[in-house]
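target protein:
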Amino acid sequence: MRFVLGAAVILLATVPLAAQTDMTGAANGFLTVYGSFHPSDGIPDSGVRVRLAPYLSPALNKLLTDGAAAEMRFAAKVKDSPPMFEGDLFSSMFEGATSWKLDACSASGNTAHCPVEYTHAEARQKPVAWTDTLLLVNTPQGWRVDDVVYGGGFQFGNTGRLTDTLKTVLRQAP
């Protein structure tokens, strides 16, 4: 009995927080990883994608992987050019968020919406606040972020949805 209990404790300690099946746990896990690579610039590299993967739906994870490959093809073909996508991919603001507050998630069937109140603050500047929404899907592994609805409405920020932005990169790639 002790062995079984000890093995269970070890197993639970090695399972990432992403294994949580609740919406809030998945959204918070995603936001924690997002905050660890601020400022975000473009499609994340493979190291960041590995850290995000436990919190992402298989579809969004594939789009990010395909988008990164498209960026590499573009960089190889078009020398000395900026990347196809610049700025923060995961929020409305080009510069990204410096802090956030997750609001209550609401589910309808196998999908959920989790509004996030973001703030971008820099020294000697008035903070900028906006709300984006994480869209989650309930997978066999639990709730995962499947998309982001950009709600900031900034002149030079992201609009629409994260998945649409990634699909545009894929369409424009060589």
In short: Confidence is low (pLDDT under 50) at residues 1-20. The CA atoms of residues 23 and 143 lie 5 Å apart. The chain has five helices and five strands. The chain has one domain: 23-172.
